[in-house]
């Protein structure tokens, strides 16, 4: 039987995305005002709905104060109300997202990533599988504005193609959708940046880990989680080895 948490994550991410589209359609004097309104309104919506639907669960949100009650809770929703605020603030850009994930007793058990500007939500209850890989060089999703030097060096080592795009959720979902083959990040993130994308990627059969191949852990006292790898499973060993060589380390995998 499918857990109702899968549908809750998907419906909340989708609804928050619709709210953000309405926010984006308003007239704002500048991009900063649009960013602030989007972050604040999506956060308030998600927290209010989770309080109503799952009153016994804790919430960790990028836009909210960190409540230490989450550290003694069995269930914690980890949300990023607006991932990719820069892209959201720029008219016409579609590479921003909403993240909603559920952590329960040590594991991510449900999650969804909404891509509102393209009318798509990908969730752990979808049964989605990654399409077959196209021929050609490995395609690495990379930040359009802040490409990490690690990934640039890795692309040279692998003869890979860099595919620039916006938010972390969009980059991870590009692997899920078969638009790229891997997303490697080493420039600093927090749990809300990756929890929902990782939950969805795992459900689709992808490899997810830290750069050294060790597991990604969530709902820790310090939510800083600086690096991750999301990739097609058949590429994982080779990619982790290349990362280790680039960093002068030995992969845990």
TrEMBL record:
Q: Which UniProt keywords apply?
A: Magnesium, Metal-binding
Reaction catalysed by this enzyme: adenosine 3',5'-bisphosphate + H2O = AMP + phosphate
Q: Which domain of life is it from?
A: Bacteria
GO biological process terms on file: 3'-phosphoadenosine 5'-phosphosulfate metabolic process; sulfate assimilation
Q: Which InterPro entries match?
A: CysQ/Inositol_MonoPase (IPR050725), Inositol_monoP_metal-BS (IPR020583), Inositol_monophosphatase-like (IPR000760)
Q: Name one GO molecular function term.
A: 3'(2'),5'-bisphosphate nucleotidase activity
- Per UniProt, where does Mg(2+) bind? 62, 80, 82-83, 193
Tagged with keyword Metal-binding: yes
Q: Does the keyword Repressor apply?
A: no
Q: Which cofactor does it need?
A: Mg(2+)
PANTHER family in alphabetical order: 3'(2'),5'-BISPHOSPHATE NUCLEOTIDASE 1
Entry protein name: 3'(2'),5-bisphosphonucleoside 3'(2')-phosphohydrolase
Q: What is the protein's species of origin?
A: Modestobacter muralis
């Amino acid at each position: 039987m499918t857990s109702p948490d899968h549908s809750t994550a998907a419906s909340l991410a989708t609804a928050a995305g619709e709210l953000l589209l309405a926010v984006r359609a308003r007239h704002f004097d500048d991009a900063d005002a649009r960013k602030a309104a989007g972050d604040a309104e999506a956060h308030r919506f998600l927290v209010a709905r989770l309080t109503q639907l799952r009153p016994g669960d804790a919430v960790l949100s990028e836009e909210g104060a960190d409540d230490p009650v989450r550290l003694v809770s069995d269930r914690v929703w980890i949300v990023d109300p607006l991932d990719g605020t820069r892209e959201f603030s720029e008219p016409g850009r579609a590479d921003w997202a909403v993240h909603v994930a559920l952590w329960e007793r040590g594991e991510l058990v449900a999650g969804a990533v909404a891509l509102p500007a393209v009318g798509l939500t990908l969730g752990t209850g979808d049964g989605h599988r990654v399409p077959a890989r196209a021929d050609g060089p490995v395609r690495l999703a990379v930040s359009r504005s802040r490409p990490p030097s690690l990934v640039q060096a890795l692309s040279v080592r692998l003869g890979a193609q860099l595919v620039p795009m916006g938010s972390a959720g969009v980059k991870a979902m590009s692997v899920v959708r078969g638009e790229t083959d891997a997303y490697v990040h080493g420039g600093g993130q927090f749990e809300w940046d990756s929890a929902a994308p990782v939950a969805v990627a795992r459900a689709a059969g992808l490899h997810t880990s830290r750069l050294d191949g060790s597991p990604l852990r969530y709902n820790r006292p310090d939510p800083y989680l600086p690096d991750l790898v999301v990739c097609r499973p058949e590429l994982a060993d080779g990619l982790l080895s290349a990362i280790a060589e680039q960093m002068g380390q030995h992969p845990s995998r």
